[in-house]
Design brief:
483 residues, alpha/beta, Isopropylmalate Dehydrogenase, Alpha-Beta Plaits, 13 helices, binds nicotinamide-adenine-dinucleotide
Length: 483
């Protein structure tokens, strides 16, 4: 078998130790890999490169398309960008795959039957990083959800379930509140579910979904969710399986895939040879399957489980009475190497099919573009006068009428305060003033510009606008509370 070239980064903190342990095991198992080492993380940040990765490192990733990465330390303080977010977004790694499995009784957990996979959307949502301070009091972070982005990750989750013999896919969102953005994700999920009748599906609001992960994880199989929720629930899931030191994760795109441990660089135990290398090793097992070496992946995974069964435990999972020996990072790796070729006796041995690759070719469904019509505009105004009495602002704006474009209402943090607001509603200095067109009125972007100029001439500070559209006649915006 020819060797597959992979890009490797040793990272910071415990990174170098766990990477060495992992590579030692992979080579001993006969993995056909050749490494190209790149520098990332703290040293690069401290050279003044705010992304934490040398420009030349991208060439290696473009060439190998496979990245085995140790955790890195992001220095405290302003200006440093998260390397993980940069890598995921720059390389289009849209799917974050995190298997969460219990290894009871060898690793202590209250949920011994846990065996789920969280598939998290990796590129969109609040992680677009588009934030603005708009007034003295109000800050905004934009949540962007796209149809192709949702479709890609949801299709990925179903393809994954199919290929890995999983029975159920659960979608988690908060579409009872965010009816348009999370609503789109849920809707796309329902559409795509139709194409996989052999797989059971359901949807949970993320609150109860998280509670189920914490309390009855054995009822869950594959979970697909948006970026932020996925970030949070995957840590809950890792925690309940017994140790954050165990979980591996894959970040997969159409071209490139990155494999890592879910934990960070653990500076508190760096350089002590006590870190558990299992998280990165489990990430590396996913990588072996991805590069078409499933039999080596099985060999490593089985030897690793046998090592746990034999009670060779690092400090983070050591249990008095059950563990046989407390081992360090290097010794743990040696114990795994000794067991290559053996299979676990209690736990189910690993089985990875040839072709159980983690990057599926995802084809998006063709669809007709909807007809878009401008029907109004929300103008956001920074206003802190007249004891913030909404009636003063409202009565002033109500004088405007441009081709039938008139003030409909004002909200403050989403709650209607004009006309007919309640005096108890607390108001900030950030007012959303909704102008809509009357029946028969005709407006376009020029009307919006005219409106802004009119508002400016009233000595009011318009800080942003958001056009209101219908798409094929359906509202493309949410109504205010009380509208
Ligand atoms: P952490 O995951 O590094 O550590 C949390 C706790 O878990 C610590 O007590 C640590 O000792 C323990 N722990 C983690 N991995 C372990 C292992 N393999 N074996 C035994 N114990 C282990 O989280 P943190 O302390 O919040 O973050 C430390 C640094 O890591 C920060 O700079 C953070 O930005 C970075 N980080 C990097 C990544 C990444 O590169 N993927 C992910 C998360 C955090």
């Amino acid at each position: 078998m020819s060797k597959t070239k992979i890009t490797v980064a040793y990272g910071d903190g415990i990174g170098p130790d766990i990477m060495q342990a992992t590579l030692d095991i992979l080579y001993a198992a006969g993995a056909q890999i050749e490494t190209d080492v790149i520098e990332i993380g703290e040293k690069v940040y401290l050279k003044g490169i705010t992304s934490g990765i040398e420009p030349s490192a991208w060439d290696s990733l473009r060439e190998t398309k496979v990245f085995l990465k140790s955790p890195i330390t992001t220095p405290q303080g302003g200006g440093f960008k998260s390397l993980n977010v940069t890598t995921r977004k720059s390389l289009g790694l849209y799917a974050n795959v995190r298997p969460c499995r219990a290894f009871s009784p060898f690793v202590k957990t209250n949920h011994p039957k846990t065996d789920m996979v969280i598939i998290r959307e990796n590129e969109e949502d609040l992680y677009a990083g588009i934030e603005h301070r708009q007034t003295d009091e109000v800050y905004q972070c934009l949540k962007l959800i796209s149809r192709p982005g949702s479709e890609k990750i949801i299709r990925y989750a179903f393809e994954y379930a199919k290929k890995y013999g999983r029975k159920k896919v659960t979608c988690m969102s908060k579409d009872n509140i965010m009816k348009l953005s999370d609503g789109l994700f849920h809707k796309v999920f329902d559409e795509i579910a139709q194409e996989y009748p052999e797989i059971e599906t359901n949807h949970m609001i993320i609150d109860i979904g998280s509670a189920m992960i914490a309390d009855r994880p054995e009822t869950l199989d594959v979970i697909v969710t948006l970026n932020l929720y996925g970030d949070i629930i995957s840590d809950i899931a890792a925690q309940i399986t017994g140790s954050v030191g165990l979980g591996g994760s894959a970040n997969v795109g159409q071209e490139v895939a990155m494999f890592e441990a879910i934990h960070g660089s653990a500076p508190d135990i760096a350089g002590k040879d006590i870190a558990n290398p299992s998280g990165l090793l489990n990430g590396a097992v996913m990588m072996l399957v991805h590069i078409g070496q499933p039999e080596i992946a099985e060999k490593v995974s089985n030897a690793w489980m046998k090592t746990l069964e034999d009670g060779m435990h690092t400090a983070d999972i050591y249990q008095e009475g059950l563990s046989k020996k407390k081992v360090g990072t290097k010794e743990f790796a040696q114990e795994v190497i000794k067991r290559l070729g053996q299979v676990p006796q209690t736990m189910t041995p690993a089985k990875f099919d040839q072709g159980a690759d983690s990057s599926f070719t995802i084809k998006l469904k063709e669809r007709k573009k909807a007809k878009k019509e401008l029907v109004g505009v929300d103008v956001f105004i920074d206003w802190d006068k007249d004891n913030r009495d909404p009636n003063v602002l409202g009565d002033q704006l109500a004088q405007i009428n441009l081709n039938g474009l008139k003030l409909k209402m004002i909200t403050n943090r989403g709650v209607k305060v004009y006309p007919g607001g309640m005096k108890e509603t607390f108001c900030t200095d950030h007012w959303r003033c909704r102008f809509t067109k009357a029946d028969g009125g005709s407006i376009n972007n020029a009307t919006v510009i005219e409106l802004l100029s009119k508002i400016d001439s009233m000595q009011l500070d318009a800080i942003k606008t958001e056009n209101l559209y219908t798409f094929d006649g359906q509202l493309g915006y949410s109504l205010g509370q009380g509208e």
